[in-house]
C-alpha cells in the first residue's frame, strides 16, 4: 500500500485494514494482528496503527482484550 504522507496516515491505514476485513482476510473470532506486526507491514509507527485499531474498535469491527490482543467481531 502506498501511503500519502502529505495527509494523516492513520486514516489510510484504517481504511486499508477495513478493506482487508471486508475481504475476509481475518474471520470473526480470529485474533487480529498486533500493532508491532502491522506497523512493520505498513512502515509506520505503532501509535499510527493504534489509532487505526481504535477507529475499527469504535466501529464495532474489533474487540480488544487487555493483555490478550484484539479480535475480529465482523
Automatic annotation (TrEMBL):
Domain HTH gntR-type, chain residue ranges per copy: 7-74
InterPro entries in alphabetical order: Bact_HTH_transcr_reg, Tscrpt_reg_HTH_GntR, WH-like_DNA-bd_sf, WH_DNA-bd_sf
PROSITE patterns in the cross-refs: HTH_GNTR
Keyword annotations of the record: DNA-binding, Transcription, Transcription regulation
Name the UniProt record assigns to this protein: HTH gntR-type domain-containing protein
Amino acid at each position: 500500500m502506498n501511503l500519502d504522507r502529505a495527509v494523516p496516515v492513520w486514516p489510510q491505514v484504517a481504511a486499508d485494514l477495513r478493506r482487508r476485513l471486508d475481504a475476509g482476510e481475518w474471520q470473526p473470532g480470529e485474533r487480529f494482528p498486533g500493532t508491532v506486526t502491522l506497523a512493520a507491514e505498513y512502515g509506520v509507527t505503532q501509535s499510527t496503527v493504534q489509532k487505526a485499531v481504535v477507529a475499527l474498535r469504535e466501529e464495532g469491527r474489533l474487540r480488544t482484550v487487555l493483555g490478550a490482543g484484539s479480535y475480529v467481531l465482523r
